[in-house]
Amino acid sequence: MEMNTTNMTHSPYKTIWSLSWPQILMMIFHLMIGLVDVWVAGKLGREIQASMGMVSQSLFFFLVIGMAVANGSVAAISQSIGAGLLLRAKRYVGLCFQLGAVLGSIIFLIGFPFRNGMLSILRVPEEMRYVMEYFIEIFLYLLPLYYLLIITNAIFRAQKQVFLPLYSMIIVTVLNTILDLGLGLGMWGFPDLGYKGIALATFYSVSAGAVFNLFLLYKSGSLRRKSFAPYRWVRNAFPYLLKVAWPSGLMQLVWHSGYLILYSITASLPLENVVALAGMTAGIKIESILFLPAFAFNMTASIIIGHYLGDGKPEEAKKFGFRILFLAIAFLSLTALGLWQFIRPITAIIAPELVVLDEAVNYLFFNMLAIPFTLTSMIMAGALNGAGATLYNLFIFTFTIWGFRLPLAYYLGHEIFHSATGIWIAMLLSQIVQASIMLYVFSCRNWQKFSMTSNKKRNNHG
Known about the structure:
Elements: H1 5-10, H2 12-44, H3 46-82, H4 86-111, H5 115-121, H6 126-158, H7 163-185, H8 195-219, H9 231-267, H10 273-310, H11 314-340, H12 343-348, H13 354-369, H14 371-386, H15 390-416, H16 420-444, H17 456-459
Helix pairs in contact: 2-3, 2-7, 2-10, 3-4, 3-6, 3-9, 3-10, 4-6, 6-8, 7-8, 9-15, 10-11, 10-13, 10-14, 11-14, 13-16, 14-16, 15-16
């Protein structure tokens, strides 16, 4: 039975967990895709593995607009459902679907003629260029379907149908693994295509996930004629979607570019910079395991806050934000504490060299201390996203990353400690500052004003 906000209020922690655990599983499958890609690429040679890592970073910039629209769709659709305006919700589904198809095609048409120029900007080494040219070409062809996969998964989440993105990701993961091993390494009688097989595995698996989602949307009646509103409605509805989406997309760029600069600060350390970089890379891989449930709780916060604000219950929305935060901190702090008992042998799997292992553990010490603060930032950001208050997220993350973390990382790393420890301390301190500001905004500011008005008389027609 579909739970409304009244039912959700009666069993808050059951609601949070029932929405979160399928999304945690979904994130685990997402991680497995990357691990299999990197493992198979490693079997084919270091140039292939390095190209795989570089193209994954590049792909982010192509997908950032799709992720921004996805965040906007969660806010608009969840608030509409919470308000009981089902026609408006259905029309936002249709609008977000159209935006995914159009924007993915536009990015492809703009990016394709300049694909080789991008490799020059990225300063791709000559021995990797032939691999990168093929990877970029295949991934650009995939963009329209990749956009639809991202946005349709967000549409399902906004409707609290969290199992459907999980099923979609299982399809993508299983197919990607079979084709990576088959086409990449020539197993099970597949043609041995090497690096081309890895790219094609991504193309076919993501395409299958997108087609599966489109089938589900059509079957549910969400892709019928009444889902595609007349121009007059779109003209009135689109500005809210844009108001939520553009700060969300810009924040993704701020976050991602901040990490690139942090890598640069680490790479330019006066001593042991290569060890520091290797330790940071290994540490981030271990840390990403803990971030999987954190992202799931972040998405749960967006869904629940959107539904409560749509239903005109801002105080209950705020209570749920704190409940999600409490559950996430309890769950992940215990997980991190258990992981820390075995941190060296686990980290040694991907960082067997002793000096790199020591630095990776050093990185993880400070970043695991930061877990309650990192979680606070992530959960509050998810809640503000569900409210449509993405401007707060943009301003806070921009200030704490570019105005605080990066200058402090350079100062502590290069001037005070002359080692990576200064950079790791700066990361911890910036998380404390960021969490404090996010908590203040969520507790004391009127972020609920960013939601759509629930004027049912005016909006009953959709």
